[in-house]
User: Which sequence fits this backbone?
């Protein structure tokens, strides 16, 4: 299976723990991890900006297509042994998918450190 690219917020404590868990579960060559905390050069070749990437998870699939939000998580979860079953179930149940999408968007809008990070990034401009 070709590698996917995951863009994540390394300054978010929950995101960092989530990515650390995923990294332990997935083959090293299956995912290319891009920490947004490194700086804007991480997104130099991309068609989305830091604000968008911080708002929702962004994952570029093996064919170069961009997946955002829950779709990005599903793409990543497909590569994780215990999580691929959840990804499969969510892809087949519209009701469960809508529920997870609402929960995900609510969480990301209020996740720890996001507001502080956004203020800090705008202050640096």
Assistant:
């Amino acid at each position: 299976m070709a590698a996917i690219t995951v863009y994540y917020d390394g300054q978010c404590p929950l995101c960092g723990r989530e990515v650390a868990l995923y990294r332990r579960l997935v083959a090293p060559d299956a995912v290319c991890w891009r920490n947004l905390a490194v700086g804007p050069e991480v997104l130099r070749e991309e068609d989305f900006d830091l604000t968008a990437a911080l708002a929702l998870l962004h994952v570029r699939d093996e064919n170069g297509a961009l997946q955002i939000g829950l779709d990005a998580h599903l793409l990543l979860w497909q590569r994780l042994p215990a999580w691929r079953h959840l990804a499969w179930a969510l892809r087949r149940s519209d009701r469960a998918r809508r529920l997870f999408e609402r929960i995900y968007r609510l969480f990301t809008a209020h996740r720890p450190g996001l507001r502080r990070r956004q203020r800090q990034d705008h202050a640096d401009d």
In short: The CA atoms of residues 14 and 112 lie 7 Å apart. The longest strand covers residues 4-8.
